[in-house]
Each structure stands twice: as C-alpha cells, then as structure tokens.
C-alpha cells in the first residue's frame, strides 16, 4: 500500500559540538529530560547509532524537487550520476541521517552522552538512538559500488581519509 500521508517525528535531543576545528572538537548528545530514562544501560555498549535530522537541508525545495533525486558522488574521478538512495547525502525527501559513533561517557541523570565524533552541526536535532548490535548491524559478505573502491573499509580510518580529501578545509579558514 502506497501512502503520501505525513508523519510526526519528535526530536529527543540535540547534538552539541564544542570547538571550531572538527578534528579537535568534543561531541555530545544532549537528551531531553523526558527521554533520559531511555539511556539506562546504554553505557554498557561501545557504540551507538545516532539518527539525526539534517535540518540545514530541510527545505520544501530540497524535499520535493526531482532535481535532488540524483547526484554526482563526491571525492573521486569519473563518477557516475547516482540516485540519492545510493548515497549517504543529507539532502533527501526525508533528511534522516545516521552516524554510528563510539560512546565515551554516559551521564544518564543529566542526559549527556559524550561521543567520539559525529558528522552533524551543533544544534542538530536527534530523532533516535539505537545501541550498536553486531548481530543486527554488521554484514559478513557485502559489496559496495565500484566508485567507492579506494575509500577506507573501516569507519575508524575514515576521519583521516576525509581530512585528506579536503572535507574539513571550510572549517580551517
């Protein structure tokens, strides 16, 4: 059954970034008071999946224009035009983004999770958190599109690679 009805999504908190340089900033997930009980036992996990709303790209134009349904992926040569669903781009019909990040500390009482990093802006709304479960979230035999070959295989290697590609240059000026 196909539907075009709208849905309401509630922010459960916001992302807080302390520091100007993304490579040296500190990152926090500030959870609203009414959702803090949901943090119980999250500190037992090494990683959390953060679902966030790419609010800086949430415009009627971007959400409804067919222009944004295809794109040329960044950081490569002779890249094909792809559908937006074949990318991790933040401009989409529903600008839901996902980052898996390591948990450094959980303050359940104050609703603060310190994380190792996140590719979102200060003040970005958080729409959900899910503990990282390898049995649910890791795939043994997967493959990626050919234009992604040469990208790091592991997330932990990605931050250095992104910096080498010039991704953070706008923040260094």
Provide a short characterization of the protein structure.
The protein contains four helices and eight strands.
Describe the model:
The chain is an alpha+beta fold and 173 residues long. The protein has one domain (13-134, 145-172): YaeB-like (Elongation Factor Tu (Ef-tu), domain 3, Beta Barrel), CATH 2.40.30. The chain is 13% helix and 27% strand. It has helices spanning 60-64, 134-137, 155-164, 169-172; strands at 13-18, 26-31, 47-53, 70-71, 82-83, 96-107, 112-115, 125-131. The chain has a 6-stranded antiparallel beta barrel. Strand 1 and strand 2 (26-31) form a beta hairpin. The protein is globular.
- Chain oligomer state: single chain
Number of domain modules:
1
> Which class do the helix and strand fractions yield?
alpha+beta
Q: How is the biggest beta sheet arranged?
A: 6 strands, antiparallel, barrel
Mean pLDDT: 88
Question: What's the end-to-end separation, in Å?
Answer: 50 Å
Q: Return the CATH class.
A: Mainly Beta
Strand residue percentage: 25-35%
Principal-axis shape? globular
SSE order, as H and E?
A: EEEHEEEEEHHH
Q: Please tell me how large the radius of gyration is.
A: 17 Å
Given the structure, what is the number of helices? Answer: 4
Instruction: Compute the number of strand runs.
Output: 8
Strand order in the sheet with the most strands: 1-2-7-6-3-8
CATH architecture: Beta Barrel
**Uncertain regions spanning at least 5 consecutive residues:** none
CATH topology: Elongation Factor Tu (Ef-tu), domain 3
Report the CATH superfamily. Answer: YaeB-like
Q: How much helical structure, as a percent, in the residues?
A: 10-25%
């Amino acid at each position: 059954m196909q539907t075009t009805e709208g849905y309401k999504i509630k922010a459960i908190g916001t992302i807080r970034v302390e520091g100007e340089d993304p490579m040296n900033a500190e990152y926090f997930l500030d959870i609203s008071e009414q959702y803090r009980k949901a943090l119980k036992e999250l500190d037992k996990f090494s990683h959390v999946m953060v679902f966030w709303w790419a609010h800086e790209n949430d415009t009627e134009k971007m959400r409804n224009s067919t222009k944004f349904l295809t794109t040329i992926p960044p950081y490569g040569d002779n890249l094909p035009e792809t559908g937006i669903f074949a990318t991790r781009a933040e401009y989409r019909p529903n600008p839901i983004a996902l980052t898996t990040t390591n948990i450094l500390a959980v303050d359940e009482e104050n609703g603060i999770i310190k994380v190792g990093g996140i590719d979102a802006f200060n003040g970005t709304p958080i729409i959900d958190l899910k503990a990282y479960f390898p049995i649910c979230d890791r795939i043994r035999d997967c493959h990626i599109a050919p234009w992604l070959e040469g990208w790091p295989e592991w997330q932990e290697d990605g931050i250095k690679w992104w910096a080498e590609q010039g991704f953070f240059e706008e923040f260094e000026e």
